[in-house]
Amino acid sequence: MISKAKFHPSTKQLKEFAAGTLSGGMNVAISAHVELCEVCRHQTSEFETKAAIDWLQTSEETKSSDYADMISNIICQPQQKSGGLEGSPSFTEIHMLDRSVSLPKALAKALSNGLVWKKLVGGINQAKINLDDETQCEFIYMKPGSQTPVHKHQGTEITLVLDGSFSDDFGQYERSDFIIRTERDVHQPRSDEGCLCFAVLDSPLTFTKGIARLLNPINNYRFRRSAAHRTN
Question: What pTM did the predictor assign?
Fold first, then answer.
């Protein structure tokens, strides 16, 4: 189902997506948004066409080098496993409380091994998936009436809303919205009706208020440990 998103990837991100230069996690997130957003799908198609024309106009030596770089980049990406044993369930949906959420194809493909959910503070549930060695990728389910502690980010976080809605200090977000937060932003996401999101972070978050600040060293350690595990 196509949605009318209010928040989208930047033009730079869409160009990098069309050129195939993004990390695995970011690529999956933008691919899922593009599937849900007609505006970004049209824009991406234009960027892909222009990139193809530009490539055709380059020298044969450059084409050969670009092709080698592309193959090297593909090989370096962690390979997703196939759908498991014959007869195993297809993860085209996620079931949360009284609703089933249909997933964009890019995310459904990434879930061949299913999800392991962990309960966090404030009615938040998290399920991490490994898509590359540069980012932390996770599904976040916010129960109705839940909120996260106030926090900021040491780098960039993108969040794609898959179902429901949430709000923070900067606005209200609904299905297919693609939200970008950087180290300049301090916010506290909350959800009245409940919300399922897919998030990609390139750095750990930092809690800025209350007892949650005690968790910052643990967050930093877990992020570094997870990054080291993804690299190995």
Answer: 0.81
